[in-house]
Amino acid sequence: MTRVGFLGPHGTFAEEAILTQPDLAGQDLTPLRSVPDVIGAVERGDVEVGLVPIENSIEGTVTVTLDTLAFDTGLLIQREVDLPISLNLCARPGTKLGAVRTVLSHPNPLGQCRVWLSRKLPHAETVVTNSTAEAAEQVAATTDEPVAAVCTEYAAQLNGLEVVAKDIEDHPENQTRFVLVGHGVPAPTGHDKTSIVCFQREDQPGSLLAMLQEFAARAINLTKLESRPTKRSLGDYCFFIDFDGHVVDELVADCLRNLRAKTADVKFLGSYPVAGAEDTHARREAAGKAWREAGEWIDGVRGLMRPSGEGP
């Protein structure tokens, strides 16, 4: 069986995301305490692959995942998994909403229901935990004060908690994207995405534009562009870029080659299957066909050149 690490303990959204994947759900699932722990376990060979959250539709990027992939590991993204998120306020049986004075959860879910908490529990203190399931465990173990966890219904059931309030997220269309990390590059499926980190060689006007022009010139669609500190000095940033296509596509390979040679240092984070139903394969095929035809045209023009020394 494949050993699959995930942000634990049991009952997290990460575990729910794994259970949506038929080829992973029946494998040896190993809960781990934090995102760096999951990635470290894959690096050491304790597990073959690991699933970690990378982005939420309300709170945005999970920076610890992005930074760990960019700066602390050579692992590559194997696939992405999108999971609809429903947040619940859960507490020990008999706890009333108005009695809650402390709310525990992971920083991202706390941010996803920030407005709800400020309206319904304006005097409650929020306490950060490593995961929603860990919050549920801590609430179940606390008997001397009225505390609650923002967590999954599954985590509440595992820890003997009751749901005090359901669907407390501030925006109804709440989704979290998870990525499966491991070794190597998956074969192309025709519905793929590539992720990279670009580092400026010099901080000068137009450096970002020069990077983006490489994609525009090849009609490669960007799906994400985000800046993050490089950890080197204040004001020094790198750029995380997701775009349609696989590294085996000639357009993508040519774009990456030019980026690496002319404009920036590039770290490759992976080419992997896209989550969701939208298929950009036809658009990429059209761009690839145009690029091949242009290449054949320039080869034909070069073929008209006479040998050196031959007169008119």
Task: Offer a few descriptive terms.
312 residues, alpha/beta, D-Maltodextrin-Binding Protein, domain 2, Alpha-Beta Plaits, 3 domains, 6-stranded mixed sheet, 5-stranded mixed sheet, 11 helices, 34% helix, elongated
- Architecture per CATH nomenclature, i.e. the level-2 architecture of the largest domain: 2-Layer Sandwich
Decide which structural class fits the backbone: alpha/beta
SSE order = EHHEHEEHEEEHHEHEHEEEHEEHEH
- Sequence stretches where pLDDT stays below 50 over 5 or more residues: none
What oligomeric arrangement do these chains adopt?
Answer: single chain
Question: Can you put this structure into words, describing what you see?
Answer:
The chain is an alpha/beta fold and 312 residues long. It has three domains: 1-84 and 175-184, D-Maltodextrin-Binding Protein, domain 2 (3-Layer(aba) Sandwich); 88-168, Periplasmic binding protein-like II (D-Maltodextrin-Binding Protein, domain 2), CATH 3.40.190; 185-301, ACT domain (Alpha-Beta Plaits). Helices cover 34% and strands 30% of the residues. It has eleven helices and 15 strands. The strands form three sheets. Strands 1, 2, 3, 4, 5 and 11 form a six-stranded mixed β-sheet that branches. Strands 8-7-9-6-10 form a five-stranded mixed β-sheet. It has a four-stranded antiparallel β-sheet with strand order 13-14-12-15. Strand 3 and strand 4 (60-61) form a beta hairpin. The radius of gyration is 24 Å and the shape is elongated. The model has no long low-confidence stretch (mean pLDDT 90).
